[in-house]
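Long-time lurker. I teach an intro course on protein structure, and each term I like to show students one example going from raw sequence to a predicted 3D structure in C-alpha cell notation. This year I'd like something fresh instead of my usual example. Would anyone be willing to generate the C-alpha cells for the chain below so I can use it in lecture? Attribution to the forum is fine with me.
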Amino acid sequence: MTTTDDAALPRTAAPTTAGGPPVPRTALVTGAGRGIGRELALGLARAGYAVGLVGRTRSRLEDVADEVRQTGAAATVAAADLVDATAVTDAVARVEAALPGGIGLLVNNAGVIEENELPFAQDDVEDVWRVVETNVRGPLLVTHAVLPGMLARGGGRVLQINSGSGHRAQPSYTGYTISKGALARFSTQLDHQYRGRGVRVLDLAPGVVRTDMTRAMPVHDDRTDWTEPAEVVALAVGFADGELDELSGRFVRAGADTVDSLRAATPAILAADARRLALTTWGPDDPVA
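-- Reply from a regular --
Happy to contribute to a lecture. Here you go:
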C-alpha cells in the first residue's frame, strides 16, 4: 500500500538533463527509513523535491514521510523487500504513479554490511553473499523498474550511494567491498548505455556518517572525524539539480568534494578520464589497453 499527500507539489521548476526535456522534480529514495536515506529524503524535500520513500519497514518510512510533509513537500511511502523482484516492481509502480510527473531522480541508498569484521577466510560466506545480494541485486531491480519511465520521458538521474571500499582493498568486509565495486561498474554501464537518452548517473560516497550501521562497526570505535550529513545532502541535491551532469558515470566523495570544487575540476577530470572504475594499463602498448 502506498500513501501520498496529493496536495503538496514540487515548489520549483524541474531541472533538465543537457539538451533534454524537463526532468520531474521528484525523487525515489531507497532505505529511506533511517540513517543516510532519511537525511537524503529530508534534504531533497527541503530543496523542493516530492519524495518517494521505499524500504522494508513501513513504520520507519511513515515517520520520515511525516517529517517530509512538514517541509511542505509531498511524500509517498511504499514498503518492499528490495531483493524481491515482484515487491520492487510493485513499489516502483506505486511511487511512479503517485509522484507528480513520475520519478526524476532515483537514489539507490539501501545497503547492508557483514555482521562481523573479519578477513574472508574467517568470515561466514553466507553472510558475505547476503551483503553482495542486498547491495547489488537491490539497485539492479529498482533501477530496472525505474528506467522505463525515465527513458519514456527523455531523461532522469540515478544516484548510487557508493563507498571508497569499492575501489580500495580492505582487510575485512569482503562482501561490502565486492558489492560497492559492482555498483560502480553498474554506474559506468548505465552511463555508457543511456547517456545518449538523457540518463545521468553518479556514484556518491558519503564518507563516514554517524549512523546505526557505522556505530556498530569496530573499525570506527575510535573515530572522531565523522562526515556531516549536510555534506552528503549538498552533493545529492547538486546532482539532482543538474549541476554535476558532466560527471555522469563517475565517483564523488562527500567531505572531500563540494559541488563548487567538482565543477571547477570537471575539465581536468574529463581530460584525464578520471574518477571512474577502470583497468590501469602500463601504457599504450599494453595488449589489454
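Some talking points for your students: The first helix runs from residue 35 to 46. The first strand starts at residue 2 and ends at 4.
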